[in-house]
Design a protein that fits this description.
It is a single chain. With 168 residues, the chain is an alpha+beta fold. The protein has a single domain, classed as Nuclear Transport Factor 2, Chain: A (Roll), CATH 3.10.450. It has four helices and seven strands. The protein has a seven-stranded mixed β-sheet with strand order 1-4-5-6-7-2-3. A hairpin with a 7-residue loop joins strand 5 and strand 6. The longest helix has 23 residues.
Length: 168
């Protein structure tokens, strides 16, 4: 699919007002994903995903000694992720977004820093720096995530903050 994508922002690429709006809306889907967790806002979080979405967090989980399968379907994704972060204070920072557009489909690359602290115990934390590779589709006037792969680049802190079952 990457060969059919046209870079929306890049050296020498003409940018149209419509392309700029699309780029903003594509990145906004990732902002809704992060802010939905940080604010505990289910509707905002769900608005980031297509009904048939897939989130693949298997590489970071494996790195911390957990075996999981990709989360499939908006309801499953919402239940698992919001259920996991309900006992945590989180902050997600999205940087370096790169967007490719092809009609009603897009690809997004971004760096996301995700801080996790147990509620009531900020003496422990897990800070992750992840690469997100995301495929999105247009859903009316907004873009929604169809497939997301999260790869951990580095971390600091206590992995049991996010994966308590890996506690020694």
């Amino acid at each position: 699919m990457a060969s059919t994508m046209k870079t929306a922002i890049g050296a020498g690429t003409p940018i149209t007002p419509d392309a700029l709006v699309d780029v903003h809306q594509v990145v906004d889907a990732l902002y809704r994903f992060g802010a939905g967790q940080d604010l505990g806002d289910r509707a905002l979080f769900e608005s980031a995903f297509a009904p048939h979405a897939v989130v693949d967090f298997t590489q970071p989980a494996r790195r911390f000694g957990a075996t999981i399968t990709p989360f499939e379907g908006r309801d499953t994704i919402t239940g698992i992720i919001l259920g996991t972060v309900a006992s945590l204070d989180t902050t997600h920072t999205v940087t370096n977004p790169r967007v490719k557009l092809a009609g009603d489909r897009s690809e997004l690359f971004a760096l996301v820093e995700a801080q996790h602290l147990p509620k009531g115990d900020h003496g422990r934390h897990l800070l992750l720096k992840n690469i997100y590779t995301v495929t999105l589709v247009r859903d009316g006037v907004r873009w929604v995530i169809e497939h997301m792969v999260i790869r951990n680049v580095w971390f600091t802190g206590d992995p049991t903050v996010l994966f308590p079952a890996t506690r020694p």
